[in-house]
Write a structure and sequence with these properties.
12% strand; 7-stranded antiparallel sheet; disordered C terminus; 746 residues; 5-stranded parallel sheet; binds adenosine-5'-diphosphate
Length: 746
C-alpha cells in the first residue's frame, strides 16, 4: 500500500523543469550558461595576467596616429600611464585607435574607442536609411535632415521627383547635392539641377540630397557646426554632448545656387580640409573671427543678432538624441556580430562628430555623422608663398583637448580611478608628514621664496584662478604642499605651526579627494541620455526590440544576415501563422526582400569582407513593417509595429531571459512587469528643477504621483547617488544638486 502510495506521489510530482523545457528554452538556458562561463573566464584571464598592472591607469596609444598629441596632453594632465608602443599582452585600460574596430582583432579586454561597424553605420547611405525608417514611423519628429535618395538604386524616383518639381515650376529652381556614400572631407561632392548631370560611371553608390539653400549666414559666409558626442556605452545606452565645438566657414561669400555658381565649392561647401586651400581662408586666432571659430562664439553671435541661441542649442541636443537612438539597433546587430556572446572582447565607446547646418529660420539640419572626427591640434599655415608649416591651432586645442581629457575620465575603470585617487592622497600625506617632522626639528626655518602656486594664487585673492590651478596641476601638488607648510611655519610657533599644517593637510586632502569629482563636474561633456532625454526618447526605442528579434533568430553567431531557415523559424516561433501568414507567403516575402536589399545595398559586406548571403537587418525590419501592416492593423504605423513586436515577444516568452533584460522598459510596463534595473531611472528635468537642499525622497515620490512612470524609492535613491557626479546647469550658472534625506527615509 505504502509502496503504491509513494508511486502515486512520484507520478503526481512535477517533472524537473529541465525535462519540461522546450528546445527553445533549453537553448536559452545553455546560452545563458555559456555567457556566464565566458564572462568568468575573461575576468580570470585578466586578473591572472602577470603583466596587468593592477592599479595604474594604462592607455595604449600605439595606433592613435593623428590623435596622439591631444591624447598625450590629456594623459599627462590626468597622471595616467601611456603605452606609446602598446603592451605585449595588449592589456590596457583604454586602447585608443585611429582606425576601425575591425582592424584590431587582437584586443580582448579593456575599452576601445571604436564600436564595431560604426564606420559602415555612419556612411551616408546607412545613416539616412536609419533616419528614413524613423521618419516613416515618426514623421513630425524626424524632420531634421534633407530628403535623400540612394543612387543608383533610386535613380528613377530621383529623376521623377526633379521632373515633377520642374513641372510645378518650384521657385527657386531646385538644386541637389550628390555625395559619395563613404566619402569624407568634401571629396567627390557636386551640385546638380538636372538628373542627367548625375554620373554613375564610377560604379560607386551615392546619396542625392535636397540642397538646403536658405542657410543662416554670418558675415555673408555659409558655415556648419561640428558637434562632438561621446557615446559611452550601448547597453545601457549612455551618451554625452560636448558643450564646445567648432564652426567651419566657407571662404567665398554665399549666394543662392545658380547655373553660374553651382561649381564654386568654396561657396557651397564648408569643409575645413577643402577651404584651407582657398587663398581667402582666414586664420585669425580671435574667437569670433576667421574661417574656423568656436561653437560658443557663433552661438554668442547669434544671440547678439537678437535670436534665441539657447533654443538653437536645445534643438541640436534633440537632433543628437534622435539620431543616436535611430542608429542604436544597427549598432547592436554589428556588436553581436563582432563580439558574439561567449567571445571575450573589449567594451567600446566612441567620440562622434555631428555636422549640423543652420537654416535661415535657425532650424538645425543634420548633414552627417563622422565616425572618426579629426582630433589633430595643428593646422597648415602658409609661412611664405607655397611653403606650408604645421602650427598649433589654439581653437582646435580649446575644443579638442578638454573633450579628450574628459572622455578619458569618463571611460577609465571607476574602481581603478578610486584606487588611483587613494594612492595620490597617501603619497601626499606621506610628504606632508615628512615635511612637518623636518620643520619641527629645524630651529629657524629659512625664509623661502614663494614657490607655491597655491599661495601665489591665494595672495592674489583670486579664488577662481586658485582653484583652477590646484585642480589642473595635480603633479605640482606635492611641491605645493611642502611650500605651503614652509610658508605658514614662518610666523608661528611650533604648536600653531602643526595645527596650521594639519588644517592645510585636511584642506589639501579634500582637494585631492575632490580632484576627479571636480574634473567631472567641470567636464565639458554633458550627459544627454539617460539624464535629460530619457523620457522623451523612450518611444523612439521600439526598433531596438526589432533588432532584438533579428539577433535572436540569426542562427549563426557573428553573422549580420538572417537566412531563409532563420526567417521561417521567426514566423513559426512567433506564431505568425495564427495570424494568417502561411509558410509559402513567409518564403515569398523573404525572397522578395532579400533581392530588394541586395540591390539596394550592393557594397555591403560582412565583417570578414566576404559578401554574406541572407536578409540584412534593415530588410528584416522592412519585413516586420510589412507583416505589421498586413496582420496587426492599428491607426498608425508605429502602433502596428508595436503590436507585432508585443505579439512576437509574448509568444517567445522573452520575459525572463537575457534578451528581455535588454529591452526598453516601456515594453515591460506594457506587459505589466516591474522594471528591475532601478539604476536606469532618470529623474525628469521638471522635478530636478524644483529640488532644493530641503527636498526629501518623499517629496520626490509625490512629484511623480499619478504619472505614467512611477519610480520606486530605490530608483530615486539610486539616481541621486549616481547624480552626485551629475552636472546640472539651470539657466543661471552650473550647480550640483544634492538632496538631504528625511529622517524616516534613513
Ligand atoms: P563630407 O563627408 O564629404 O564632409 P558632408 O555631408 O559633410 O560631406 O558635406 C560637405 C559639405 O557640403 C557640408 O559641410 C556642407 O557645407 C555642404 N552640404 C552637404 N549637404 C548639404 C545640403 N543638403 N545642403 C546644403 N549644404 C550641404
Amino acid at each position: 500500500m505504502a509502496a503504491s502510495k509513494s508511486l502515486l506521489d512520484s507520478l503526481k510530482k512535477p517533472e524537473p523543469t529541465n525535462f519540461r523545457m522546450t528546445d527553445f528554452r533549453r537553448e536559452l538556458h545553455l546560452r545563458h550558461k555559456r555567457e556566464e562561463h565566458a564572462k568568468k573566464e575573461k575576468l580570470r584571464a585578466l586578473q591572472e595576467s602577470k603583466y596587468v598592472s593592477r592599479y595604474a591607469i594604462t592607455i595604449d596609444t600605439s595606433r592613435a596616429r593623428s590623435n596622439c598629441d591631444v591624447l598625450r596632453m590629456s594623459i599627462k594632465e590626468l597622471g595616467f600611464k601611456e603605452y606609446p608602443f602598446g603592451r605585449k599582452d595588449n592589456c590596457c585600460d583604454v586602447h585608443w585607435h585611429a582606425c576601425h574596430f575591425e582592424e584590431n582583432p587582437e584586443v580582448f579586454g579593456g575599452k576601445v574607442n571604436k564600436f564595431p561597424g560604426m564606420s559602415e553605420i555612419c556612411s551616408k547611405m546607412t545613416l539616412f536609411r536609419c533616419l528614413d525608417i524613423m521618419r516613416d514611423l515618426f514623421p513630425t519628429d524626424y524632420d531634421f535632415y534633407p530628403r535623400t535618395w540612394y543612387l543608383p538604386a533610386q535613380f528613377h524616383e530621383f529623376s521623377c521627383e526633379i521632373r515633377k518639381m520642374h513641372e510645378r515650376r518650384v521657385k527657386p529652381k531646385p538644386t541637389f547635392i550628390i555625395k559619395p556614400d563613404t566619402g569624407a572631407q568634401g571629396d567627390g561632392i557636386y551640385l546638380l539641377r538636372e538628373p542627367n548631370e548625375y554620373s554613375s560611371l564610377s560604379g560607386k553608390c551615392h546619396v542625392a540630397q535636397e540642397y538646403m539653400s536658405n542657410v543662416y549666414l554670418i558675415d555673408k559666409f555659409k558655415f556648419d557646426f561640428r558637434i562632438y558626442v561621446l557615446l559611452k556605452s550601448l547597453e545601457p545606452l549612455e551618451f554625452y554632448i560636448c558643450q564646445e565645438g567648432l564652426a567651419r566657414f566657407s571662404t567665398l561669400p554665399y549666394e543662392n545656387p545658380t547655373n553660374k555658381n553651382i561649381h564654386e565649392s568654396f561657396m557651397h561647401l564648408t569643409n575645413y580640409s577643402l577651404n584651407k586651400r582657398s587663398s581667402t581662408f582666414n586664420r585669425s586666432d580671435r574667437d569670433d573671427e576667421g574661417s574656423k571659430r568656436t561653437l560658443t562664439s557663433v552661438l554668442r553671435r547669434i544671440a547678439m543678432n537678437g535670436h534665441d541661441s539657447n533654443k538653437v542649442w536645445k534643438s541640436i541636443e534633440r537632433i543628437v538624441c534622435k539620431t543616436i537612438v535611430a542608429i542604436v539597433p544597427e549598432m547592436k546587430v554589428e556588436y553581436q556580430a563582432a563580439i558574439p556572446p561567449g567571445k571575450t572582447g573589449p567594451s567600446c565607446f566612441q567620440v562622434l562628430g555631428f555636422d549640423i547646418l543652420l537654416l535661415q529660420n535657425l532650424k538645425p539640419i543634420l548633414l552627417e555623422i563622422n565616425a572618426s572626427p579629426s582630433l589633430s591640434l595643428d593646422s597648415e599655415q602658409e609661412v611664405s608663398p607655397g611653403v606650408f608649416e604645421y602650427v598649433l591651432s589654439p581653437k582646435d586645442e580649446e575644443v579638442k583637448y578638454p573633450l579628450i581629457r574628459d572622455t578619458l575620465l569618463h571611460v577609465v575603470p571607476i574602481d581603478k580611478l578610486k584606487y588611483f585617487r587613494k594612492k595620490k592622497k597617501q603619497r601626499l600625506l606621506k610628504k606632508l608628514k615628512a615635511s612637518t617632522s623636518q620643520k619641527s626639528k629645524r630651529p629657524d626655518p629659512p625664509v623661502k621664496q614663494r614657490t607655491s602656486i597655491v599661495i601665489i594664487k591665494a595672495d592674489e585673492s583670486d579664488e577662481e584662478k586658485r582653484e583652477v590651478n590646484v585642480t589642473q596641476q595635480m603633479s605640482e601638488m606635492h611641491m605645493d604642499v611642502d611650500s605651503h607648510g614652509d610658508s605658514t611655519a614662518r610666523d608661528v610657533n611650533s604648536d600653531d605651526e602643526r595645527e596650521s599644517n594639519i588644517k592645510s593637510d585636511t584642506e589639501l586632502d579634500e582637494e585631492v579627494d575632490n580632484y576627479f569629482e571636480t574634473k567631472l563636474r567641470e567636464s565639458c561633456l554633458k550627459q544627454l541620455y539617460p539624464a535629460i532625454y530619457d523620457e522623451e526618447c523612450e518611444r523612439y526605442r521600439i526598433l531596438e526590440r526589432v533588432a532584438g528579434l533579428f539577433i535572436f533568430f540569426l542562427g549563426i553567431r557573428g553573422s549580420l544576415r538572417i537566412g531563409p531557415t532563420g526567417f521561417r523559424t521567426f514566423a513559426r516561433k512567433c506564431r505568425l501563422n495564427r495570424k494568417g501568414m502561411t509558410n509559402a507567403s513567409v518564403d515569398i516575402m523573404y525572397i522578395d526582400l532579400q533581392r530588394r536589399w541586395d540591390h539596394m545595398n550592393p557594397e555591403r559586406t560582412s565583417g570578414s569582407g566576404i559578401k554574406s548571403i541572407g536578409l540584412c537587418y534593415q530588410g528584416f525590419l522592412d519585413a516586420c513593417i510589412e507583416i505589421a501592416r498586413r496582420k496587426f492593423y492599428a491607426p498608425t504605423k508605429i502602433e502596428m509595429l508595436e503590436n507585432l513586436v508585443d505579439h512576437c515577444e509574448l509568444n517567445l516568452n522573452l520575459r525572463d531571459n537575457d534578451l528581455a533584460n535588454n529591452l526598453p522598459r516601456l515594453h515591460f510596463r506594457r506587459l505589466g512587469l516591474q522594471y528591475r534595473q532601478g539604476s536606469m531611472y532618470a529623474m525628469p528635468r521638471r522635478v530636478i528643477d524644483q529640488m532644493t537642499e530641503e527636498t526629501t525622497i518623499e517629496d520626490l515620490l509625490k512629484a511623480h504621483e499619478k504619472k505614467l512612470r512611477q519610480p520606486s524609492r530605490e530608483d530615486i535613491e539610486a539616481f541621486l547617488r549616481k547624480s552626485r557626479r551629475m552636472i546640472y546647469q539651470p539657466s543661471s550658472g552650473s550647480r550640483v544638486i544634492s538632496v538631504t534625506k528625511s529622517p524616516d527615509s534613513e
